[in-house]
Amino acid sequence: MFLMFTLGRPDVLPVDDYGIQNGYRLAYSKRRLPKPRVLATYGQRWAPYRTTASWYLWRAVDFDRETRKQATL
Predict the structure, then answer these.
(1) The model scores a pTM over 0.85
(2) Residue 44: its pLDDT value, please?
(3) 11 is catalytic
(4) According to a count of CB atoms within 10 Å of the terminal CB, is the N or C end of the chain lower?
């Protein structure tokens, strides 16, 4: 988070972050959370914009949460 939001680094993918793992799972319709090593390997294709990819993965979790919330209303 410090590298991304304080220092403004454009190529950071926090592969150990639960939100990133869950966002990947949701975005790619996986049943299980990816292992950090798998996520790091897949994330190489997003370089040099992995910070942006991280943001989208976090938003995927938010979108899923909002969608589930709307479905229960």
Answers:
(1) yes
(2) 98
(3) no
(4) C
- Distance between CA 10 and CA 36 in Å, rounded? 19
CATH label, 2-72, candidates 1.10.3720.10, 2.40.280.10, 1.10.1670.40, 3.40.1180.10: 1.10.1670.40
Q: By the 8 A CB rule, do 54 and 4 touch?
A: yes
Give the active site residue among 16, 17, 62, 64: 17
Q: Would you list the domain boundaries of the chain?
A: 2-72
d(CA 15, CA 52): 14
Residue type, 38: V
